[in-house]
Amino acid sequence: MRRRRFLETLPALAPVSVQLAEAAKTEPLPQYRVVSSYKPQGRLGMPGPYVGQVADVHHAKVVDPETEHIDAELVRLMVDKAMLLLTGDKDVRDAWRRFIVPSDVVGIKTNCSGAPQICSHPYVVREIVRNVMEAGVPAKNIHVYERFQDQMDSVGYGKYLPAGVVIGAVSPGRDQLNGYDPKTYVEVDFFGEEDTRSNIIRKVTETFTKIINVPNIKDHGAAGVTGCLKNIAYGNFHNVARSHRYSKTNTYSFIGTLANVEPLKSRTVLHIMDGLKAVWHGGPFSPQKKYRFYPGQILAGTDPVAMDRILLDIVDGHRKSQKAVSVWDRSPSTLRADNDKTDTPNLNRFIREPGHIEFAANMGLGVYDLKKIDHRKVQLG
Amino acid sequence: MALFFAPVLATVLLWVEGNPQPLPPGISCVATTREYAPVWRPLAPCVEEWDPAKVQKLPSPMVRYRYNVASASSAPWLDSNGWRYMRAAGPMAQAPLLVKSAKGKGALAASEALTYRAKVAIQAEPAEWAAIAAIAQWGEANLAKEAKPSANFTFVDDGSAMAGENLNLLQRRNLQFQVAAKAPAGGMVVLPKEGDPAEYAYNVRQKVGDEKRLLRIYGSEVVLGRMYHLPNGGAELHLLNYSERTIEGVRFRAIGKFKSISVLYPQSAKAVDQLADGTAAEATIEKMPTYVVLRLNP
Fold first, then answer.
1. Nearest chain A CA: its distance from B199 CA (Å)
2. What average pLDDT score do residues B107-120 get?
3. CA of residue A374 relative to chain centroid, distance
4. Interface residue B65 vs chain A (CB under 8 A)
5. Confidence of residue B93 (pLDDT cuts 50, 70, 90)
6. Which residues of A touch B202 (CB under 8 A)?
7. d(CA A106, nearest CA chain B) in Å
8. Contact: A180, B249; criterion CB under 8 Å
9. Strands, E assignment, A179-287
10. Picking from A30-44, A263-277, A327-341, which range would have the lowest pLDDT averaged per residue?
């Protein structure tokens, strides 16, 4: 049955957006072939020891909505509190030592796609580096990374981090295969593209023993939202933008498939979500301040699905407050394939796929059901 | 029609006109009009007289970036003469071929001629003659003298414009095939077909199956490849970079019982991260210049 015909046969009782979201689940999935010689290792990898648990720390004064100034000292308090809340430890050093040992080589996966306006804030990254070093890892074994050099350069992490920390993007340009592992990839043909491989970053397989993921809270024109899963998936593989064409995006299944590839799954041991600033429309980029908002939150967890499930409601809730269409909206009437990222929030360029979070849950990457998520919230100020 | 191992030679000539000027070493022949032939004879080892009225003029190879055209694809558009050379080497041999190369594309034009084993005259700025000559000289000295095109299928060329469009897209999709006037007795046969050539090429690709494609290229949309099987069981692989820049990492996968991969040209190129499992070989060209030739060793 063709998709259009199928949609016409859906029951009339449910809201249209729900009907259409359900329809997305019935579409045939692309045929993925995962090539990796790595086996699952240890118990810290996704979804990790704190399955279904999210530590969520809020401070009303950590960010000034007018100037977007961030209070570094409050960031420090919030990161510490989030780690204690997650682990139940009393000493923050004990909390970090649950994840990091001195012999580790740690990759800190930033998100710089919206930089410099929004990114894994240097103060947040600095706190992570400080704690990893206190856990005994020397600066030279800490790598702060992203895929593209120009995006990283626009942040200037070097000004904030201790000497010796390795700060570097995988590639200076967009379409460069060097820096990626030729033996570990996901092969799939979405639209008849010639290059059907998406290779993993070589440092993930050959250098890092642990990865700490530092996403933001953002709307995403294709994936619906972008948080832990998208940052760890699309942010660690080459040749991923090919998953969108016309109004169709394959983020629904591609994000979870990539995040599930070993050794990425086993080595990603912690997610610290920088929700100080956020994007409610136009993401993952953020050229316009009017589409940013300021949750003032730091979330921590080992379960990327549970964290993204919380993020989903934060973004969609804010969109609702702005009378924008939901990220779940799949209506053809709101679809404009030529709509660029700065246009009205009531038009979509792609049919968004926030269902990618539940898809990842079904792959074993975490807990999606809100009733089963232990959402531990603390208000610091 | 089966293609046997046969001498398949490329000949690169310089197209010259006007007042003669010194030629760089490595140019064995130039092509020119009857009018200019006498003045070039003292300078060139040999001079071919071509009738401009009978010459088929080909566009310069290059890449045109046309991103976001209807969002259909972000793939850049390649102007490649490969399909014309394949047609010329096949049953639909046409007039002498002359490429008027765009500025800076002389080396690419010469490399294309070697890749597709074509006889071509290249019209280029004198500043590019030395680069063209160097490639031509290297090709004459080093390309395998006996080879046959690696082919997943045979394309039956009826000489029509539509067949030309079909050929163009099949070649630009890096499919490996041979061209014949009529269907051979065995193997997969592909006939020309009206319609969208891109869709046509994709359908052919689907019929072959990606896992069975003799050559795959990863990491770039501006690199085309052509492979030839050799009598010893090895193969010669040509890779062409149509862009203006060195590409940081181009990977290929070639099906065959190859044990190792050697770089033939240029010496500075490196084929790293080699894999060979007895059914296929892979390697990455770390820094891909305009032209790389590799030997896949049995």
1. 9
2. 95
3. 20
4. no
5. low
6. 192
7. 25
8. yes
9. 180-187, 197-201, 210-213, 216-220, 224-226, 244-245, 248-249, 268-279
10. A327-341
Secondary structure E strands in A214-324: 216-220, 224-226, 244-245, 248-249, 268-279, 292-293, 297-301
One-letter identity of residue B204: V
The verdict on a CB contact (< 8 Å) between A193 and B73 is yes
Q: How far apart are CA A78 and CA A58, in angstroms?
A: 7
Tokens 């246009």 — which residue? A343
Give the SS3 label for residue B35.
coil
- pLDDT mean over A192-219: 97
- CB-based contact (8 Å) between B247 and chain A? yes
> By the 8 A CB rule, do B235 and B227 touch?
yes
d(CA B60, CA B58): 7
CA distance A240 to B282: 21
Among A177, A189, A337, the residue with its CB nearest the CB of B218 is A177
What are the chain A neighbours of B248 within 8 Å (beta carbons)? 171-173, 176-179
At B248, which helix (H) or strand (E)?
A: strand B247-255
**Residues A15-43, buried b or exposed e (16+ Cβ, 10 A)?**
eebeebbebbeeeeebebeeebebeeeee
pTM: 0.92
Query: Could you tell me if B67 and B74 are in contact, meaning their C-beta atoms sit under 8 angstroms apart?
Result: yes
Which residues of B, range 69-88, sit inside 8 Å of A by Cβ? 71-75
Q: What is the ipTM of this complex?
A: 0.90
Q: Which secondary-structure segment (H or E) carries A143?
A: strand A142-148
- Contact across the interface for A192 and B205, Cβ inside 8 Å: yes
Question: Does the CB of B43 have a partner CB in chain A at under 8 Å?
Answer: no
- B235 Cα to chain A: minimum distance (Å): 22
Mean pLDDT of chain A: 92
Residue A175: its chain B contacts at CB < 8 A?
A: 219-221, 247
Kindly list the distances between the CA atom of residue A329 and the CA atoms of A218, A285, B138, B194, B247, in Å, as whole numbers in the listed order. Answer: 17, 20, 60, 39, 40
Distances, alpha carbon B32 to alpha carbons B27, B29, B141, in Å: 14, 10, 24
Residue A77, Cβ neighbours under 10 Å: how many? 17
Q: Do A177 and B275 touch (CB under 8 A)?
A: no
